[in-house]
């Protein structure tokens, strides 16, 4: 655990904080979409950190603006596509930026669960495909990634609601 980071927080508190941060992020020019992912999106009762996913073609500028927002106490890490911060209340928030063609796969991957992601990758591999946070690939050709529903459809499945993503028998 990062120094100064709180223990797990109740879902309602995490949803409120994610909502406030998303509201600020959506004000930034160049943000096409911004959603909560991870435990908040899966509606887990206790949340360790907040994952946010943004669709934008101007990731560096979004990251630069995000790490300067008023709720940021400490920048834990950052590059041109991701940033992790600790809020003034000691809650870790991770922001990831994806281009339009990868937003759905990024949202799918960062929503999880880890077990669900492993299950999805295994299904893709059985069809000779590669699934990662940047898309669904057949060889070097991206065949999916814009939407989660599109990825599920390409793998022959109906969309699985985030709160049902356990990696068992979805």
Provide the number of structural domains: 2
Helix content: 25-40%
β-strand number: 10
Strand content is: 25-35%
Distance between the termini: 31 Å
Q: Largest sheet, described in full?
A: 5 strands, mixed
CATH-defined topology of the largest domain: Beta Polymerase, domain 2
Strand arrangement within the widest β-sheet reads: 2-4-7-6-5
Shape: globular
What is the overall pLDDT average? 95
What's the CATH H-level superfamily name of the largest domain? Beta Polymerase, domain 2
Q: What is the CATH architecture descriptor of the largest domain?
A: 2-Layer Sandwich
Class computed from helices, strands and strand pairing: alpha+beta
Task: List SSEs in N-to-C order.
Answer: EHEHEEHEEEHHEEEH
What would your notes on this structure say?
This protein folds into two domains: 9-98, Beta Polymerase, domain 2; 113-160, 2-Layer Sandwich (Beta Polymerase, domain 3). β9 (135-138) and β10 (141-144) form a beta hairpin. It has 170 residues and is an alpha+beta fold. The model has no long low-confidence stretch (mean pLDDT 95). α4 packs across α6. The longest helix has 16 residues, at 11-26. The protein has helices spanning 11-26, 38-42, 59-66, 103-111, 114-126, 148-154; strands at 9-10, 33-36, 46-47, 49-55, 72-78, 82-87, 92-98, 130-132, 135-138, 141-144. The protein contains six helices and ten strands; from the N terminus they run βαβαββαβββααβββα. The strands form three sheets. A five-stranded mixed beta sheet has the order 2-4-7-6-5, with helices on both faces. A three-stranded antiparallel beta sheet has the order 8-9-10. The two termini are 31 Å apart. The protein is 34% helix and 27% strand.
